[in-house]
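[INFO] parsing input record for Matrin-type domain-containing protein
[DEBUG] input buffer:
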Amino acid sequence: MDYQNRAGSKFGGGGVASTSATNADRRERLRKLALETIDLDKDPYIFKNHVGSFECRLCLTVHQNDGSYLAHTQGRKHQTNLARRAAREQKEGKGPEGVTLGLLAGVQVKKNTMKIGRPGYKITKIRDQVTRQNGLRFQFAYTDIAADVVPRVRFMGAFEQKVEESDPQYQYFIVAADPYETVAVKLQARDVDRREGKYWSWFDEDNKEFWVQILFKTERDERYSAVPGLAPGRK
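[DEBUG] output buffer:
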């Protein structure tokens, strides 16, 4: 940056930069550094929403442009969350490479368990009468589920799966329980409301049925959920 015309500086010398100018220069340097090391097309956590902003699905933050997102990826918060996720996946013995989507293709889980096929399932569209949120209720039948096994659920981004061509407009809802094949449902890439009563799962051990309910955030909540100082959505 050219500081020679700043007040108090000598000709040919660099004046003292303001705080805003220093921060802008730092962000630009971080952006250039990130561009050299990160390919946004292969980043599983970036998502461009309907208003043109960029979201980080890992940190749940919103950024006005790709430069701001790239600077965020070099920050402490994003790097810490990456390390935590890697440690958790290593502890659970799973990762993007070890998961294949069930309803889209046969699953090849790296275990010695003999798979007996896909579970029976039923999907019902629902709507909250108070908040007018749209959602889905899943019912899976695990008649021959292994002893002491409780089905597990996970949301997978479009860039994590290896079955279809990556499309950021979609995400995948995955359910796994031995000895059944892992199954996945293709959903719109909308934020799920994870507040109590909105998102829940329950395994009926007597009837061997697994229930999951998800409600999507309203358009207002999706737009302002990461904006500081605004009140959270309605309960």
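[INFO] The longest strand covers residues 120-127.
[INFO] shutting down worker
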